[in-house]
Amino acid sequence: MGNRDFSDSIKLEVIKNNLKKNNGSICCEICHAKLNSIEECHFDHIYAYIKGGKSTLDNCQILCEQCNLRKNDKELQDFVLEEKAKQFLAGKTIDITSDIKTDETIPENNSSNNTSKRLSKEEFDRQIQAFIDKKGDIHKVDFTRAYNKLPSIWYVKEFYGDLNTMKKAFGIEDLSLNWSRERIVDALKEYVSIHGDVKEKDLKKSNKLPSYPCILKYFPEHKTFTQFKKEVLGLKAFHGLWTKEEVIAAGKSFIEKTGEISEKDLCAENDLPTSKVIYGYFGSMAEFQKAIGAQVHTSNAPVTKQQVIDALNDYFKDRDKVIESRDVFFQTFPYAPSTINRLYGPFLDFCSENGITVINAKIASYSKKDIDDAVHNWVFNGNDIPKAKELTKLGLPSMSSIMKYYESWRTPFVIYKKIYDEANRNKQ
After folding, report:
1. What is the C-alpha separation between 408 and 237, in angstroms, rounded?
2. Calpha distance 38→26 (Å, rounded)
3. 63 forms bridges with which residues in the sheet?
4. How far from the centroid of its chain's Cα atoms is residue 105's Cα?
């Protein structure tokens, strides 16, 4: 079979035909919703690629994300029925008690995604209110999780203009709308006067503080929160501004109090740099211990997953597990990227396993069809369900990509395995 992707020349012709058909607008072929950018368009095989459909001009159409997801789910159910029909036609006896009900195993989209009609504002408000009543808040990332069964974020722009305006309409206070440079400094100084310091993990609404992205918005001249603390608040800065001499002095001061030092002690709470700084200057924990005259543990037992989990619990506490980016996270997290990579593999797999949402994650953009096609090919080639850390190494979508559409990364593998185990049993 040929390439699954449509060529750019085919996409161009499909766009031109869609514009002509809809009087200068781009619209979904199923629900007719207007699509405002190429990111909202899904170039879909009219006759499914999985069934032999070709990547040709006459087999291509533009769909919105919701209709594309719904169509993929229907194709999966049709495939199950088609397999049974083939077995029946060949004179085989089929087991009617072992039907695979895809509507129970595949996370469905909400009612707005399962109808060709556009949502009314009343219905949209009802679904959003139900979600807020359950979760207490709503974020942009919630709209990307298919299992949340939320309408398309397109409706937010249609009915409210932007997410902040919508949240305000539902009674969710957005402190960022009230911030200014002066108010940010005043709020942080007041917090410091009570608590003695302020850390990135403290930047949350419950503390009446701005978020880290909000601070960067109003203070773009400061590239890190550490730099902001030092230059604006006059606080002692940690990670990122340590000199080698300061690191040695801090290490010696610590062992004078405790007698020894290990990697788990490397955190701001102990007035020490993170392990990333240590490894950057000394190459290993053992060399750092030598430099400060501490006892060198020949084993230097590596950090365990449990220690990382404990550090995560302390890092987030009662906050949502949402981080701005990988770089920002490691500015204050006590363990170095190399430690996380050793224990979890790629950073996004670490985030997925621990339920962390990365706002600015640099990942390949997979549609649900891409996910299903990749898993389908993997299972059809006779492979077993892989381990989470092996996904990207095997050329499969990462955990975080799969979990955009499924609550568990294993779900699509289990679904397809059931389908093909059933098909194989019917052939016997």
Report:
1. 40
2. 9
3. 42
4. 22
CB proximity list for 352: less than 8 A, separation 6 or greater: 388, 398, 399, 400, 403, 409
Amino acid letter at 103? Answer: D
Q: Strand pairing of 60-63 and 322-323?
A: unpaired
Please state, in angstroms and rounded to a whole number, the distance separating the CA atoms of residues 322 and 320: 6
Q: Would you state the pLDDT for residue 129? A: 92
CA distances, 200 to each of 39, 82, 188, 304 (Å) = 32, 55, 11, 24
Beta strands in 201-273 (DSSP E): none
**Average pLDDT in the 303-327 region?**
83
Distance between CA atoms of residues 105 and 335, nearest Å: 38
The CB density around residue 141, as the number of other CB atoms within 10 Å, is 14
| Domains of the chain, residue spans | 1-63, 64-106+363-428, 121-173, 176-233, 244-291, 305-358
- Distance, CA of 203 to CA of 212 (rounded, Å): 6
Short-list 149, 151, 122, 131, CA closest to 33: 151
Contact (CB, 8 A) for 375 and 384: no
Q: Which of 207, 175, 214 is nearest to 191 (CA)?
A: 207
With beta carbons less than 8 A apart as the criterion, state whether 35 and 62 touch.
yes
SS3 category, 167 = helix
pLDDT digits (tens, 9 = 90+) for 243-266: 788 889 888 888 888 888 887 777
Could you give the CA distance from residue 266 to residue 272 in angstroms, rounded to a whole number?
A: 5
Residue matched to tokens 């993997």 = 378
CA distances from 139 to 65, 144, 167, 286, 427 (A): 19, 10, 9, 44, 48
Rounded CA separation 243/220 (Å):
24
pLDDT at 124: 92
What counts of helices (H) and strands (E) characterise the chain?
A: 19, 4
